[in-house]
Amino acid sequence: MKISIGYLGEALENLTRDSLLEGARAAEAAGFDGLWYFDAIGRGRILPDPLIALTLAASVTKTLDVGTCIVQVPLRQPVALARAALTAHHLCEGRFSFGVGAGSTRTDFDFSGLNFDTRLKDLGEALPLMQKIWQDEEIAGARIAAWPPAKGGPPILIGSWAGKTWIPRAATEFDGWIASGARSTFNKLKEGIANYRAHGGKRAIVTNIKVDLSAPAQDMPDDGPFHLCCDLKTAQERFRRIADLGYDEAIFVVPDHQSATLDRVLAITGK
Questions:
Q1: What are the CA-CA distances from residue 69 to residues 4, 40, 126 (Å)?
Q2: Which candidate, 21, 87, 33, 85, places its Cα nearest to that of 57?
Q3: Rounded distance between C-alpha atoms, residue 21 and residue 61, angstroms
Q4: What contacts 190, CB < 8 A, 6 or more positions away?
Q5: Where are the chain's structural domains?
Q6: For the chain, does the N or the C end have fewer beta carbons within 10 angstroms?
Q7: E strands along the chain, which residues?
Q8: Using one digit for the tens of pLDDT, what is the confidence trace for 78-123?
C-alpha cells in the first residue's frame, strides 16, 4: 500500500516558495510515496493552486508522485483547465495523477459566481472535452498541439461518493477512484470500495485521513467519523483495518510537516 501526505492546514497559512519546496523534499526523504494537494476557494483560508504547487514539488524531487485530491472541475473553464493539467502532466514527467470531482462546498461556487446545483452535469460535460483536447482532437476547428510525451493527458481519478453513477464510472471509464475520509465512517469506506471493486475498478485511494498522535484517546466506532487522532497503537490498529479493505493508497493529513512528525506518521504504517 502506498502512503502519501496531503497538504492541508495551518502550515499553509504562512506559505512561501521555500516552505513548499522544503516540505516536498522532507516528504520524499522521510519515505512517503506521494504528495497531494487539495483545492478550496471561498472558505476564508487560502490554499495554493494545486497544479502550480505540485509542479513545483515535482521539480525538486525525483521519485515522489504528485496529485490533486481533488480539483473541482466545475469551478474552471474546461479548455483552460485542460491546458493547465496537460502542462503539469508534461513537466512532472509521468508522476502526476489528476484527481477531479464536482465539489461539495457551496461557498466555493458562490464565491466564484458559479452554479452549485449544476456541478455534476458540468463535470460530466467537461471531462470528455478535456480528454479530446489531450488526444489532440480538433475542437471547433482548432487543436491544442499537445507535446508528444504528454499526449493523452494524465491519469484521471474520480473523487465522488455518488455510488450509483460516479463510482461505477470511475471504475469503467477512468483511471481510479478517490474516497475522502474527511466526513466518512469506516463502514462507508468499506461499502465504497466494495462497490468500486464490484464494477472492476483497479486503483482506489483513501484521502483526507486526519492524523494527530498527540490527541487524547477516544472511542471511534465504525459508524463514527474516521480519523487517526489517537495514540500510536490505536492508529496502527485502525490503519491496518483500512489497509485490509484493499485500498491501494492512503493520504494522510497531519498538523505540521516537520521531519519528526513525518517519521511518526510513517510509524503508523510500519514502513
A1: 12, 11, 17
A2: 21
A3: 9
A4: 245
A5: 2-269
A6: C
A7: 2-7, 34-37, 65-72, 96-101, 156-159, 176-180, 204-210, 249-253
A8: 999 999 999 999 999 999 999 999 999 999 999 999 999 999 999 9
pLDDT in tens, 162-220: 889 999 999 999 999 999 988 799 999 999 999 999 999 999 999 999 999 988 877 88
Look up residue 89 and give its three cell numbers: 502532466
- Report the C-alpha gap between 271 and 265 in whole angstroms: 10
pTM assigned to the model: 0.94
Q: How far apart are CA 29 and CA 33, in angstroms?
A: 10
What three-state secondary structure class fits 20? helix
CB 236: neighbour CB atoms within 10 A? 15
What homologous superfamily is domain 2-269 in, according to CATH?
A: Luciferase-like domain (3.20.20.30)
Residues facing residue 101 across a β-bridge: 72
* % of the chain beyond a pLDDT of 90: 82
- What percent of the chain has pLDDT above 70? 96
